[in-house]
Automatic annotation (TrEMBL):
GO terms for molecular function: nucleotide binding; oxidoreductase activity. The keyword Transcription does not apply. Residues 1-31 form the signal peptide. SUPFAM superfamilies: Glyceraldehyde-3-phosphate dehydrogenase-like, C-terminal domain, NAD(P)-binding Rossmann-fold domains. This is Glucose-fructose oxidoreductase. The keyword Secreted does not apply.
Length: 379
């Protein structure tokens, strides 16, 4: 069995780009080096729950182009604990009330919103109005209107906006995109993507409360499956039909438990996604006219794993996805490198989520989607 490693993967990409592109990148790399020495961006995390505590803050200890400069929390006890652990000065600690004063703090360049979904729009907009670049966790908001408001606020303020879509910076996912772009397995005809876990915890958690989450499995995990279907085909869907399944209504009182949806793509490819808070699933499979490739797992914190019909076992060194994601965003801000997960990507996914809910509300009816080709694709 052949192994595709990061090294030969880069060679493949370099060949795909053509020698000229590779050569012309060299002076840029030198200029970047000079800029890198100048500054690391200061990031303030808003919301110090489990994702900030166990993923983002540790990752920010290893990032090259940004660091943990500040925190915004509604829980006063967390202030001292975080300040002690990460050496955060008092002047860089805010609560939800005095958060807007962050406008006057030059140590904070980026505000990363890691709150329950229904709070994303308010805090992203306040951050933009304070003149800070914004990273917004997934899902971007709880409806498309909120996504538009965030995008507008960032555009009006002239600040950059990125989504917390860590997989967009992840090497197995980038390999998938490369397979699709290079037609390594021919024209893509089918994609299947699953993103799900079994929830048995506190029934009062915000993820099961629609006013805070905006929805259940689809909002939480479904966006990963939607993303896989799109980067697995390289296309935005033109229609969606969807079904909802419920087996534990006493637990999922307010939010969707399991949703399956089928996509049609402009090329004629079709796709099926499954998302659930009732069962575990974490994979993607893509079939083309001359073979297939597969990631399993496809969307956890890694390391991911993958294989292809050519007998290749994909193998990339494991790095924190959050570290890669935040450094990619910092490089976008500092050096103008492509935004791998722009706000439009978050909005596109929410348009698809809304269409899925609309289909379910209409008995599985096929809902057309009017997305421009490539709309929301990152760089
Ligand atoms: P969490 O429940 O662990 O933390 C939520 C934080 O928000 C807590 O600090 C809590 O105190 C605060 N909060 C403020 N107001 C609240 C309210 N009214 N109700 C509940 N909490 C409130 O959640 P989390 O897992 O850290 O998720 C936060 C966000 O990050 C969500 O949008 C989630 O989708 C996203 N997330 C993304 C990933 C990823 O891989 N990109 C992984 C986990 C979570």
């Amino acid at each position: 069995m052949k192994t595709i490693t990061r090294r030969n993967f880069n060679t493949v990409i370099a060949k795909g780009m053509g020698g000229a592109a590779l050569l012309s990148a060299a002076p840029f790399a030198c200029a970047m080096g000079a800029d890198q020495d100048k500054k690391k961006l200061g990031i303030a995390l808003v919301g110090l729950g489990s994702y900030s505590t166990y993923q983002l803050a540790p990752a920010l200890q290893d990032t090259q182009h940004c660091y943990l400069a500040g925190i915004v929390t509604g829980t006063p006890e967390k202030e001292k604990a975080w300040a002690d652990k990460y050496g955060i000065p008092t002047k860089n600690i805010y609560n939800y009330q005095n958060f807007d004063d962050i406008a006057n703090n030059e140590a904070i360049d980026v505000v990363y919103v890691v709150l329950p979904n229904s709070m994303h729009a308010e805090f992203c907009i306040r951050a933009a109005k304070a003149g800070k670049h914004v990273i917004c966790e997934k899902p971007m908001g709880i409806n498309v209107e909120e996504c538009d408001s965030i995008i507008k606020a960032c555009s009006d303020a002239g600040v950059k906006l990125g989504m917390g879509y860590r997989l967009q910076s992840e090497p197995y996912t980038q390999q998938v995109k490369e397979f699709v772009k290079e037609k390594t397995f021919g024209d893509i005809q089918f994609v299947s993507a699953e993103a799900a876990y079994r929830s048995t915890g506190n029934p009062d958690q915000w993820r099961l409360n629609k006013s805070l989450s905006g929805g259940g499995a689809l909002m939480n995990m479904g966006v990963y499956a939607v993303q896989s279907a799109i980067y697995g085909t390289g296309e935005n869907p033109i229609s969606v039909s969807a079904q909802e399944f419920s087996t534990r209504p006493e637990y999922f009182k307010d939010t969707d438990e399991t949703i399956m949806a089928q996509f049609e793509f402009p090329s004629g490819a079709v796709g099926n996604i499954s998302t659930s808070h009732n069962f575990n699933a974490n994979s993607m499979y893509v079939s083309g006219t001359s073979g297939w490739f597969q990631l399993q797992p496809a969307n956890n914190y890694g390391p991911l794993s993958g294989r292809t019909s050519k007998g290749d076992e994909l193998k990339f060194p494991h790095e924190s996805q959050q570290k890669l994601q935040m450094d990619d965003f910092a490089k976008h801000v500092l050096f103008g490198e492509p935004n791998k997960a722009p706000g439009e990507m978050g909005k596109r996914d929410m348009m698809i989520v809304e269409a899925i809910y609309q289909s379910i509300a209409n008995g599985g009816q096929k809902i057309p989607l009017d997305l421009a080709p490539g709309f929301g694709f990152g760089g």
